[in-house]
Amino acid sequence: MEKIKVIFCGTPQIGADILTTLTEMENVEVVLVISQPDRPVGRKKELKPTPVKEIALKNNLKIIQPVKISEAYEEIAQIESDFIVTCAYGQFVPTKILDLPKIDSINVHGSLLPKYRGGAPIQYAIKNGDSKTGISIMKMVKKMDAGDYYIQESIDIEETDDTGSMFEKIAKLGQKMIKENLLKIYNNELSPIAQNEDEVTFSKNISTEEEKINWNDLSVNVWNHIRSLSPWPIAHTFKGEERYKIQKVQILNNNVEAKPGTIVNISENGIDVQTKDGQVQILLIQKPGKKMMEASSYKLNNLSDLKVGDCFE
What we know:
There is one protein chain. By secondary structure, the protein is α/β, with parallel strands linked by helices. The chain has two domains: 4-199, Rossmann fold, CATH 3.40.50.170; 209-300, Formyl transferase, C-terminal domain (Methionyl-tRNA Fmet Formyltransferase, Chain A, domain 2, Roll), CATH 3.10.25. Helices cover 24% and strands 27% of the residues. The protein contains eight helices and 15 strands. Helix 1 (13-24) runs parallel beside helix 2, helix 1 runs parallel beside helix 6 (163-186) and helix 5 packs antiparallel against helix 7 (219-228). It comes from Mesoplasma florum (Acholeplasma florum).
């Protein structure tokens, strides 16, 4: 058979993983890669290629990086394709582009739709304390993440997981699913299933304000909130004007009465902070202007910027 011609749209590492799988499939030819423009990173603000661009260059694939994909319509339309496959591209793809492929435009989405439509499904699944999430391979339509899905598979969220580890798990699942199902979709062997509109929830992109820890919440919610933002962008809290980033905590069973946000103990194990119903112990913390470090350093090195009785806001 002729190779399946794919235009791929993606930007971060999870997209790069899906693109890698497509390049390794013997029955697939990636005819074009579309990624977000390179962004300045670090203190020197040097332009860094997206992970998807790095894979495209490694495999000598044609790549474009339009500021707005709609402005690249003419260039995309000249390339014959069977599918557009997207994964975490980061731009709204207009209908006139979605209609270009012979077969379909599909998206590898990191949730069990109709749950968590939007740009942060993995983060929301962890934040809400879900025990499972998954991948939906879905038809792309004008409305965001509202298309019928061809197939779904679930994966467990363990207590040891954070967003970083779940992205790795989800990427591997997505690679497996695209490898097993793209040819089936091409051969019309999978029937799309409509989403139940009554069960739709959304996962909008997380704002800086939403990264702030609410110590007046239950310990389990504080824990879920922090791991949903680890390893990026990392939850934060304030002591006065100073902002501290907190990447990892564990729930304690101590029975101490204090105002939520109060540091109730500093030990070789970490920093214990009061919540609405108990305490969590900070394990990884970043002081203003410093690198992330183990919270046990406060006791072991007699650091003085935080002490028992101080209160995070």
